[in-house]
Known about the structure:
Low-confidence stretches: none
Strand order of the largest sheet: 1-7-6-5-2-3-4
Structural class: alpha/beta
Number of helices: 12
Order of helices and strands: HHHHHHEHEHEHEHEHEHE
CATH topology of the largest domain: Rossmann fold
Radius of gyration: 18 Å
Strand content: 5-15%
Oligomer: single chain
CATH class of the largest domain: Alpha Beta
Mean pLDDT: 93
Shape: globular
CATH superfamily of the largest domain: Uncharacterised protein PF01937, DUF89, domain 3
Largest sheet: 7 strands, mixed
Amino acid sequence: MHTDCENCLLTQAQKMLIKHNIPKNIAKKIMNGYNLFIAENRNNGTLTPEAACYLHRLLKKEAKINDLYKKEKDEYNQLMLSLEGDIREKIENSPNPFQTALRYALAGNIIDFGPPEPFDVFKTLAAAASKIPAIDHSEILYQELKRASTVLYLGDNAGEIVLDKIFISVINHPNLWFATRGAPVINDVTTKDAENVGMTNVAKIISNGYDAPSTLVKHCSPEFKKLFDKADIIISKGQGNLEGLINNKEKKIFFLFMVKCDVIGELIGIPKSNSVVFFNSPKIPKSTM
């Protein structure tokens, strides 16, 4: 795991301790537990999402809070729902609704409480339709969707799932599944979040059965693994899912996300600066993020 990723997770932990007013003795226990985990697993191929999963399980257990970002998730789900009508109108009136819906889905990836930097969702949405992806394989996806029997869309964060829902409705595939996390972690989407924003109106919903902020197939439920193996196309939303699937060369995966850190930027050869990318089957070295 990259040192920058370790430090990012430490920052996440410290934010959570302050946010929930965790007593000093409990906070010390949490940080000691996390530091021990990192020391024991730093050089054994542990991925960043696996470390994040351990950290958030520890935080939830010691703080006795099942969903550390419930308030923020609910707020951003409602905010994006309130903007849905206007965004749909812009997409429908655009020259290419598929491309425009895709760019709004990319913009939605800004809603993330994992990275240390603050974000401005209104500024990002205002520029969404005109923001050109640094890598763009969307035309390949458009053609592949016509031939696919089963499509699996891997969700990322609450709030942004409203924009995923809009994009999925534009895709309009008869057998598209939307995957959620198995339990709350950061502000990642759960089945309840997806249901609350009306995702069931445009897709079938499946939990991946695991509480990492990623899709770590080896840990996922048998039901999810079966669907993952069956899917002709996988649309992977967000950096977290990228981290878990970047070494998978067996499936046809389209990665759709905003570059939020230098580690990912260097890995795919794109400067950070919140560039958006949409690419298929990256030919990059094996990752140990």
